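A.,

Following up on our hallway conversation. Structure tokens first:
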């Protein structure tokens, strides 16, 4: 009896957590299919379905270009972050040198700074480099918070790899670059997938830097584009269009998580147990 009650309580707890996590997305989908006074209707399923909200998002602004900008910026940020982080994680995890621990805590400390604390400095840097209102400006600024995270995580995963792999490669005459790319990185595929996806989500959803370092509609990413959706008057917001845009932006992330879910789980649990 006690086991049945405990199991029932666990099921109810999981159901409550799932409902709490899924409800915002379900509410966004429902609202995106409503228009006019139907937005204030409390029926569970909207009818008729207002698919015009999705068309209006692309018709009233260059939302397709904004999505492309987000894909390019997030993809470039992840690629550069993983490349630099893998190269940095190799000496940090596999070599012993003076100041390594201080350097690791320095990298971790950088990731703890709020974005607004480095905003003015990044603005001066980007303006000095002549990158203002361009996609490279966003890639450069996004690496401020993705690179420390990827370096720290990949260093932890690489530290747990057996040293016998590296020693065997060195005995065969492999150099440091060959050891990194041909010996250490293949077993780290789950860690790279998990870390890369988390960095992609962070870059995809970033708002403050994208708002500050872009000026024209053609250079904006989707979070900024959604925030600038306006109605016929200043006090009237087209909630149907805003929710439709939010659903469009969220869908790629859901698809990516479903595709890489096994690698994500394997990557997040790779360092949990040592064999």
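Then the amino acids I'd put at each of the 275 positions:
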């Amino acid at each position: 009896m006690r086991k049945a009650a405990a199991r029932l309580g666990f099921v109810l707890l999981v159901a409550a957590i799932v409902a709490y996590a899924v409800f915002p997305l379900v509410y966004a989908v429902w609202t995106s299919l409503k228009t006019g006074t139907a937005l204030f209707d409390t029926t569970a399923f909207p009818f008729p379905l207002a698919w015009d909200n999705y068309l209006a998002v692309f018709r009233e602004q260059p939302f397709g270009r904004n999505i492309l900008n987000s894909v390019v910026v997030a993809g470039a940020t992840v690629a550069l972050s993983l490349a630099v982080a893998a190269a940095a994680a190799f000496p940090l995890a596999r070599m012993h040198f003076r100041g390594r621990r201080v350097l690791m805590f320095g990298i971790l400390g950088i990731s703890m700074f709020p974005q607004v604390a480095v905003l003015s400095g990044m603005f001066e840097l980007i303006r000095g480099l002549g990158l203002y209102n361009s996609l490279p400006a966003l890639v450069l600024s996004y690496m401020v918070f993705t690179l420390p995270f990827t370096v720290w995580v990949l260093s932890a995963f690489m530290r747990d790899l057996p040293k016998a792999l590296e020693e065997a490669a060195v005995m065969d005459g492999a150099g440091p670059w060959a050891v990194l790319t041909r010996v250490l990185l293949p077993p780290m595929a789950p860690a790279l997938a998990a870390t890369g996806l988390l960095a992609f989500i962070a870059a995809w959803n970033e708002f403050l830097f994208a708002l500050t370092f872009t000026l024209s509609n053609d250079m904006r990413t989707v979070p900024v584009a959604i925030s600038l959706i306006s109605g016929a008057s200043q006090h009237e917001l087209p909630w149907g269009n805003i929710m439709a845009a939010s659903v469009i932006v969220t869908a790629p992330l859901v698809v990516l998580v479903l595709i890489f879910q096994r690698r994500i789980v394997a990557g997040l649990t790779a360092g949990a147990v040592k064999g």
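The two ends are 38 Å apart (CA to CA). Curious whether your intuition agrees with the design.

B.
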